[in-house]
Structure formats: structure tokens, C-alpha cells
Amino acid sequence: MADTFSLQRVLETFRSSLSEKKEVYIKYYIAGWQELVAFMNSLGNVFSFISKDVVSKIQILENFLSGENRSHYVTIQSMVKYELENDLVDLTKRGSHPESGCRTLLRLHRALRWLELFLERLRTSTEDSKTSVMCSEAYNESLAQHHPWLIRKAVGVAFCALPGRDTFFDVMNAGDHTQVVALLGESLPLIAEVYQITEDLYAKNNLLELP
Ligand code: 1PX
Question: I need a labelling partner for 180 at 20 to 30 A (CA). Which of 83, 169, 174, 198 fits?
Fold first, then answer.
């Protein structure tokens, strides 16, 4: 991972995460998240409680990827099959498998929906649009529904510290505004596709509400 964030690299990692059979490689999925964490860290300390949580979830998945059962953790599809067949998932309440791959990835999956909604707003925004408003609208439509009151409040405070739209566009390192908008237009269908494939897989296996 290079020091500076680039939207192009996020796009490339999510592109690499899709196999020909439309399965999702966990390795690239979490690489995409690592890039996003680097971006969030560059925005300042107010976001560290958010990035810490993402980092710990990435770590849980990385441990599976390098552990003795790694052959089952190549794609999200193989992980779901393996963990379900071997009773490695707490399905209704937290018990002996509080950190299964399935429940951990579900948290990132829900956050990916936030990202999709936020980037779509950013893509179609105008000069006077506020990033804090775009962020919180996207949040309320997605992740907020899974977060308790206290987290929602803390997230609201963090949103107020977001830099403006111009800074966002600059930090993405993808050229001028028109180029960023074009790249967002290219990235969003990919992110949406990865999201939808995961969503369908989780829905089919009744995993969307894992504790
Ligand atoms: C190109 C620009 C894109 C900006 C990239 C920013 C990436 C943001 C990534 C946010 C990821 C949040 C993951 C949250 C996972 C989660 O829901 N965790 C909760 C549940 O976990 P548990 O193990 O307890 O069941 C956990 O309680 C979460 C705690 C921290 C709060 C998470 C708030 C998420 C707010 C999303 C908006 C981020 C705004 C960043 C601005 C750039």
C-alpha cells in the first residue's frame, strides 16, 4: 500500500476482488478497505474510533486468510459455505463464535453500502454541497440502522469535522474535479456489483442479521 490515497487504487482493488465466476476474493476486498482506512486516517484523529474498528475487522479476516483453514477463506462464497457447514457462525445470539468470518465481513459489507451511497452523492454534488450532509444522509440510509444511539451520536460529531468538498476531491488524487467525477462514475458500478453479490449471498443463507 502506498502512502497517499488514490481513488484509482481503490477502484483497482475492488475490480480485482471479482472473479470470472463473480465470486468475491476476500484478499482484495480487505485490501480495498485498507486503502479506505488510510484515507480516513489522513482526515484526522476524530475518525480514529471508526478506523480502529475497521482495522480490527480487517485483522480478524486476515487471520483467517493466513490461518490453517485458509483454503476455505479465498472467496466470500467459500467462507460462507465452510463456516455454515462446520457450525462456525453464531446465528441468533453471540455465543461460541463471536468473531466468525461471516459476521465480521457483514459489518464491512454494510459499510460498503454507506460508501456507495456517499460516493454517488459526491459524484452528483454541486459546489455548494456539504460533505457532512452527504455523509450523514448516506449513513442514515444504511449503517445507522444497525448502530445503537451512542454510536450514531459519535458518528454525527465526526461528520461535523469532515473537510469540504474541494478537499475531498483533492485527496482522492485523481486529477481535477471532472476527472474525479468520471472515475467515480467508473468505480460506483463496481462497488455496487461487489455489494450486490455479497448481499444476495447473505440473503440466500439468511445471514443478514448476524449478531
Ligand atoms: C473516497 C472517500 C471515501 C471515504 C472512505 C472512508 C471509509 C469509511 C469507512 C467506514 C467504515 C465503518 C465500518 C463500521 C463497521 C461497524 O458497523 N462496526 C460497528 C459494529 O461492529 P460490532 O463488532 O460491534 O458488531 C461498531 O460498533 C462501530 C463502531 C465505530 C463507528 C462506525 C461508524 C461508521 C461511520 C461511517 C462513516 C465514516 C465517515 C468517514 C468519512 C470519510
Answer: 198
